[in-house]
Design brief:
By secondary structure, the chain is mainly α. Among the domains are: 65 residues, 434 Repressor (Amino-terminal Domain); 92 residues, Serine Threonine Protein Phosphatase 5, Tetratricopeptide repeat (Alpha Horseshoe), CATH 1.25.40; 86 residues, no CATH class. 76% of the residues lie in helices and 0% in strands. It is built from 29 helices and no strands. Helix 14 runs antiparallel to helix 15, helix 22 runs antiparallel to helix 23 and helix 23 packs antiparallel against helix 24. The longest helix is centred in the middle third of the chain and has 21 residues.
Length: 569
């Protein structure tokens, strides 16, 4: 048995199937018994993934087969199984350590820094010196903000700003108000944040003005006012051009981050990728941990938008590791939520649900609106994959409520899109049509082209359109933005609606190519466990002639697809 070849892996997969059958177990039951996903067992059986010795030992123990039996096609079952082979330890992540070393500012553990700052603040309070107490509150506020504890940051920074006002120290007051505005924005208190940024902008000091304008731009972007945000950034860029040396480098770093957010508002993945990639090395050079992690988060969003799932997973995993090492709980929660949604995209519902719950808990602990909203979206996506339409709708409504309460205009539209998907799963297409149109209207106003395409596609699905011309609009936006998932879904829905076998084959070819790429990158996926995708691929397969259909069934190697009864429906 040559395990380096696809045929050898297929033979090993057949032995696994034989062992399961002889033990009276379905593949799903076997997966549950040995503690792995059904997707991984499917990939073992199909020969797409080579089952390692420790997994084979577990399978053998459950099915009454020794390890040697799986490799020797002539061997008979023996009574005593071989001892499991221990898994090799994971390699040292040198890149992560280099990134952490380059990006660290101050102590590596922001949580520890927050505790130290609190101790210093307690000592300052005992001293009775107002200036010392104001400085201690400022330090505590900044440490809390770096640790992602936004509530604690707001309280400390507000005390510090008020104290500096009383002391008449305008420079320190305005620097503190800038940070206070950032904490307020993170907590969703955008009107108060704008008032703080306005005070900073009006100072007349170029070193403060660019910061205030960037703060204003971030708030305007979150409110869906992209053009106003860009105008603020243009003014900020003019001010930055008058700065020198290291100060200008820092200003350019934060300007790139703000520009990336505006580009993402418009689903301009190309421009967002360019500014995020420019920010990442500069953040490392300047040892700016927060901006380094933000650049990685933005790159993950870009990769996800383009459906480059391995690159998105790698970026998010790096953020999670670095955020844990530095104690940045807010960005840790955000990255966990985005990773949970990615797990749902890969069909791993339970893993997505677990990560989504963790992200929601951490987000609520630190008061991060962004993490809370993203976590509900991830939990909605996980429920969709599991076929739990009502739970998916409930979590989407929670995301709508969070976004609406904090006036996250695009975030609310994205949440409504998730709600529409849930209602489609429940078979409530017609009642969901007004919500799909709501998404379209908001996306048109924002200039969010990928979101617009998804809204148009969902509206077509709600209506059950079979008109050729109707599918052009979402396909156009997918082509313009490089949103591969939107392009695939539109092509698949159109192929089924207008009975186009050639288009259906292209759709299936894309599925096979994606899954091959994901497996090569080491991503365990169950993409076809998603009910709507599985149904759509089945319908595309029914449009093919029998010979082509069997070839693609073999290439996809996903057991539920081979259900001839399902293909005949």
């Amino acid at each position: 048995m040559d395990l380096s070849s696809r045929e050898g892996r297929r033979q090993l997969g057949e032995r696994i199937q034989t062992a399961a059958d002889a033990a009276g177990l379905s593949l799903a039951e076997l997966a549950q018994a040995i503690g792995c996903s059904r997707a991984l067992i499917y990939q073992y059986v199909s020969g797409q993934v080579l089952a390692q010795a420790d997994r084979l030992q577990a399978i053998g123990d459950r099915c009454g087969r020794p390890l040697a039996w799986f490799f020797d096609l002539e061997a008979e079952p023996a009574s005593t199984p071989m001892a499991p082979v221990p898994a090799a330890p994971p390699p040292v992540r040198r890149d992560d350590l280099r990134a952490l070393l380059a990006a660290q500012s101050g102590p590596a553990d922001f949580g520890a820094a927050q505790r130290t700052s609190q101790a210093l603040r307690d000592l300052a309070a005992e001293s009775g010196d107002p200036a010392e107490l104001a400085a201690a509150d400022s330090a505590l506020g900044h440490a809390s903000w770096q640790a992602g504890d936004l509530e604690a940051a707001r309280a400390a920074l507000q005390r510090s700003a008020d104290a500096y006002t009383q002391l008449g120290d305008a420079d320190r007051e305005l620097n503190t108000r800038q940070s206070l505005g950032a904490a307020l924005a993170g907590l969703g208190e955008r009107d108060r944040a704008l008032r703080e940024f306005d005070l900073v902008t009006a100072s007349g000091d170029p070193s403060l003005e660019w910061r205030g304008r960037l703060g204003r731009a971030d708030v305007l972007e979150s409110l869906g006012q992209g053009e106003a945000a860009l105008a603020e950034l243009d003014r900020a860029a003019e001010v930055v051009g008058r700065l020198d040396g290291v100060e200008q480098a820092w200003a350019k770093l934060y300007l790139d981050g703000a520009l990336t957010n505006v580009y993402l508002l418009h689903d301009d993945y190309e421009q967002a990728a360019a500014t995020a990639r420019a920010a990442a090395p500069l953040a490392e050079e300047l040892a700016a941990v927060d901006q380094h992690l933000e650049a990685l988060l933005n790159l993950a969003v870009v990769h996800r938008g383009r459906y480059d799932l391995p690159a998105a997973a790698a970026a998010l995993d790096q953020v999670i590791r670095l955020a844990r090492l530095t104690g940045d709980r807010e960005r840790w929660a955000v990255a966990l939520a985005l990773r949970a949604e990615l797990e749902a995209t890969l069909g791993r519902a339970e893993t997505a649900r677990e990560s989504g719950r963790d992200a929601l808990r951490f987000g609520l602990e630190v008061g991060s609106v962004r993490a809370e909203w993203l976590a509900h979206l991830a939990l909605s996506a996980a429920a969709l994959v599991a076929g739990e339409g009502q739970e998916a709708w409930h979590q989407a409504q929670q995301a709508v409520a969070v976004a609406s309460a904090h006036r996250l205009v695009k975030g609310e539209a994205v949440a409504w899109l998730a709600a529409v998907e849930a209602r489609l799963l429940l078979g409530h297409g017609a009642p969901a049509l007004p919500d799909a149109r709501r998404v379209v209207v908001t996306a048109e106003r924002l200039g969010a082209r990928t979101l617009l395409g998804w809204g148009q596609l969902c509206a077509l699905r709600c209506q059950g359109s079979a008109e050729e011309c109707d599918w052009k609009a979402p396909a156009q936006w997918a082509d313009q933005t490089g949103a591969a998932e939107l392009a695939w879904r539109t092509a698949a829905e159109r192929a089924v609606a207008v009975n186009d076998p050639s288009a259906a084959e292209v759709v299936i070819q894309q599925v096979a190519a994606w899954r091959e790429t994901w497996l090569a990158a080491g991503l365990e996926e169950a993409w076809l466990d998603d009910r709507s995708r599985l149904t759509l691929v089945r319908r595309c397969l029914t449009l093919l002639d029998p010979e082509a259909r069997m070839l693609w069934l073999d290439a996809l190697a996903w057991p539920p697809l081979a259900d001839e009864r399902a293909l005949g429906e």
